[in-house]
Write a structure and sequence with these properties.
The chain is α+β, with helices and mostly antiparallel strands and about 130 residues long. The chain has a single domain, classed as Alpha-Beta Plaits, CATH 3.30.70. Helices cover about 35% and strands about 25% of the residues. The chain contains 4 helices and 4 strands. The longest helix is centred in the N-terminal third of the chain and has 15 residues, at about 1-15.
Amino acid sequence: MKTITFTLALAAALLATPSLNAQKPVEGRFLHHVYFWLAQPESPAARKEFLAELSKMRAIPGIRYSFIGTPAADARDVVDNSFTYYWLVTFDDKAAWKIYDTHPLHDTFRTKSALWKKVVVYDTQSVK
């Protein structure tokens, strides 16, 4: 009986312990989603240059979290996999986003627009 009780207690403790691989949740109340379609998506040099330029913006003050990704290639009718890169940037609020939006690093990135043929932005804020 003691062995069963100990085993159950150990199992409960392990289930209650956060996974060592658990990631922090996305933080911030204002999320900036940006989808890019590169002008030369098959060019390794164009991809490398784009990622280098995009990554520079991570230094802008006020950014809470940043994630760069590519399509997950999920073949479902409701999924758009046509973009080349995705960038998620989160901020504490719209004021922090405004700092980012008018920052010189962001302005410099915009001058590289020849790297992409299309960009779509979705800004969202948390529901109160």
